[in-house]
Write a structure and sequence with these properties.
Blueprint (H helix, E strand, L loop, with lengths): L5 E5 L6 H13 L6 E5 L5 H8 L5 E4 L16 H6 L4 E4 L2 H6 L4 H13 L3 E6 L3 H5 L3 H16 L7 E4 L13 H16 L10 E4 L4 H8 L6 E4 L6 H11 L1
Parallel strand pairs: 1-2, 1-8, 2-3, 3-4, 4-5, 5-6, 6-7, 7-8
Helix pairs in contact: 1-2, 1-10, 5-7, 7-8, 9-10
Bound molecules: phosphoenolpyruvate (PEP).
The site of phosphoenolpyruvate (PEP) has 13 residues, from strand 8.
């Protein structure tokens, strides 16, 4: 099964209107890529991304959404609002949100469900901490995180994108070896196969200190279908090089 690869930039809480304009312009001008490409700016910059990227094949998305439809949830942004801004994707369950905002597996699953209900594809992040890896819990942690999502989404589970992001590799410069990453991706694929008829068509991205010089070896693995890119997505030359490495 050949799956088209996907590279997604997670800009986190970085950028400014002029810096973003330059970044988006550089990415748009580097097209075409032989893979799908998306960027996830902070919420206030979504409309700028929508305007700049309209008419290109580059998609945009958000870094989080509420599990709620609407209401008195100060500071939250609903999936319906993201859909209004043309978001194709929303990242849910990023380890920074799990760790700093106490997001549970169930909340992450509910956010994924809210996104799908509005036609926005959730990119569901799973991954183990260093302590969990060192104590041999990697497989059980990622399986538990994904199983709550599968159970909550039921027959819609095949509609998500999964991102395996070992917490110890995010923003640290440490990267899982292609073999380490492939082994977790194969495990996640097997779990998806047991739950979703389209599991072989589903994308499982790798994230964690992906750079131009390690992208090709990671993305060459059979179950790694692209990447979720943090730091390197803020530098146009690096992000473009990663997109090209995938193709
Ligand atoms: C991320 O935050 O999703 C990420 C993968 O970050 P980095 O590429 O900087 O490790």
């Amino acid at each position: 099964m050949t799956r088209r690869k996907l590279v997604v930039g997670n800009w986190k809480m970085h950028g400014s209107r002029p810096a973003n304009a330059a970044l988006l312009d550089a990415i748009a001008h580097a097209r075409p890529f032989g893979c799908d490409v998306a960027v996830c700016p902070p919420f206030p910059f979504l409309s700028d991304a929508a305007v700049t990227l309209a008419g290109t094949d580059i998609r945009w998305g958000a870094q989080d959404c509420s599990a709620h439809e609407q209401g008195a949830f100060t500071g939250e942004v609903s999936a319906a609002m993201l859909a209004e801004f043309g978001c194709r994707y929303v990242i849910v369950g990023h380890s920074e949100r799990r760790a700093m905002h106490g997001e549970s597996d169930q909340l992450v699953a509910d956010k994924a469900k809210a996104a799908l209900a509005r036609g926005v594809t959730p990119i569901v992040c799973v991954g183990e901490t260093l302590a969990q890896r060192e104590s041999g819990q990697t497989d059980s942690v990622v399986k538990r995180q994904l199983s709550v999502v599968i159970h909550t989404l039921a027959h819609c589970a095949g509609e998500i994108v999964v991102a395996y992001e070992p917490v110890w590799a995010i923003g640290t410069g440490l990267t899982a070896t292609p073999e380490q990453a492939q082994s977790v991706h194969a495990l996640l694929r097997a779990q998806l196969r047991a739950a979703a008829a389209r599991a072989d068509e589903m994308k499982i991205l790798y994230g964690g200190s992906v750079k131009p010089d390690n992208a090709a070896s990671l993305f060459g693995q059979p179950d790694i279908d692209g990447g979720l890119i943090g730091g390197a997505s803020l530098k146009a030359a690096d992000f473009v090089a990663i997109c090209r490495a995938v193709s």
